[in-house]
Design a protein that fits this description.
Number of strands: 21
Strand order of the largest sheet: 6-7-8-3-9-10
Number of domains: 2
CATH topology of the largest domain: Rossmann fold
Distance between the termini: 38 Å
Radius of gyration: 25 Å
Order of helices and strands: EEEHEEEHHHEHEHEEHHEEEHEEEEEEEE
CATH superfamily of the largest domain: P-loop containing nucleotide triphosphate hydrolases
Helix content: 10-25%
CATH architecture of the largest domain: 3-Layer(aba) Sandwich
Structural class: alpha+beta
Number of helices: 9
Largest sheet: 6 strands, mixed
Length: 364
């Protein structure tokens, strides 16, 4: 059993709070991703879980074992670092075998595990090579194979793909996901790359200033971010947030964007009625707006400012009131800057946000 429970964990460096009262439960064999910008505390949290930096407050449990104050060697973990951390004077075989030798495994067991891990990582033909003649991607496979060979119940990975070029990262993402599905270790993966997080993780913990703002499945984090920060951090482009004023007309709640009236879904009417006369934010993804060439009922007229052809789609930049908005269209939707288009906002794709708190108002 390798469930990981983090309870009220705090880590300080002097007066700076790097991890602030974090609570997190990672299920047995789950692949959890810690995601956030630089300095948000994700690596500090990972190091505390590994025992490389002791927490100032709180507890860390692996199943029924309290490992809060255990040294790393007694936590029965494996770790893959951003810098690979493989020995240049050792062959691939000896690098993969290093942890097994330190733990005094028998020679036959070491050989079996090294070759098994090498096969999983597709480096079985490189066991006699030295790191100096290998590419970055191959060296990263060696680092992962070394961790896998230990067969630990907990695998920790600190931005392991960040030193690779974009094409190699794409390849390694798929390889790592396949590998982790096979070995079924409880895995915590740190990254600042949202594409890695969305494509690989079973659940994502989005961090900011030492706190976890949201911990959920990737599609939920993407589609229903809990606040402005998560919506603005997740997605490329990030979620649009448009200001609108709530008004009641003939017993119905409408949200005015300039001279355009947006009618919320019926399920949101009671909640938004409490904001009568106030401004709320309309959150909507670029791909969720319907773009029309001609005027249509319940469609907002806007002028295209910038067109960015991206191959799989065209990304339009428009202005709505004082807000700059990104709109994704099919690549065949050809327009020029200065051209008017009309936008329709499907009610089920809108996420309403309280402007003061920045929190998402979930549909009732």
């Amino acid at each position: 059993m390798a469930e990981i429970r983090i309870e009220n964990l705090t880590k300080r460096f002097g007066s700076f709070v790097a991890v602030d009262n974090v609570n997190l439960t990672i299920e047995d064999q789950e692949f959890a991703v810690l995601l956030g910008p630089s300095g948000c505390g994700k690596t500090t949290l990972l190091r505390a879980i590994a025992g490389l930096g002791m927490a100032d407050e709180g507890r860390i449990c692996f199943g029924e074992r309290d490992v809060t104050y255990l040294p790393p060697r007694d936590r029965k973990i494996s770790m893959v670092f951003q810098s690979y951390a493989i020995f240049p004077h050792m062959s691939v075989y000896d690098n993969v075998a290093f942890g097994l030798k330190m733990n005094k495994f028998e020679k036959k067991e070491i050989d079996r595990r090294v070759r098994e891990a090498a096969e999983l990582l597709h480096i079985e033909m490189m066991l006699e090579r030295f790191p100096g003649v290998m590419s970055g991607g191959q060296r990263q496979r060696v680092a992962v194979a070394r961790a896998v060979a230990m067969k630990s119940e907990v695998l920790l990975m600190d931005e392991p793909l960040s030193n690779l070029d974009a094409l190699l990262r794409l390849e390694m993402r798929a390889e790592l996901k396949r590998l982790l599905q096979e070995i079924r270790a409880t895995t915590i993966y740190v990254t600042h790359d949202q594409i890695e997080a969305l494509s690989m993780g079973d659940r994502i913990a989005v961090m900011k200033e030492g706190k976890i703002l949201q911990y959920d499945q990737p599609d939920t984090v993407y589609d229903k971010p809990v606040d402005l920060f998560v919506g603005g951090f997740i997605g490329n482009p990030p979620m649009n947030f448009i200001s609108g004023q709530v008004q009641r007309q003939n017993g119905q709640v409408q949200v005015r964007i300039g001279d355009y009236s947006l009618v919320p879904a019926q399920s949101m009417q009671p909640l938004l009625s409490t904001y009568d006369g106030k401004t709320v934010l309309i959150g909507i993804r670029a791909e969720n707006m319907e773009t029309l060439r001609q005027p249509a009922e319940e469609a907002l007229k806007v002028e295209v400012l910038v067109v960015e052809p991206l191959g799989s789609q065209n990304l339009l930049t428009v202005k709505i009131g004082g807000d700059t908005v990104k709109v994704a269209t099919h690549p065949t939707f050809q327009v020029e800057p200065g051209t008017p288009v009309w936008l329709h906002f499907p009610a089920d794709k809108i996420r309403w946000v309280d402007r003061e708190s920045g929190k998402l108002l979930y549909p009732a």
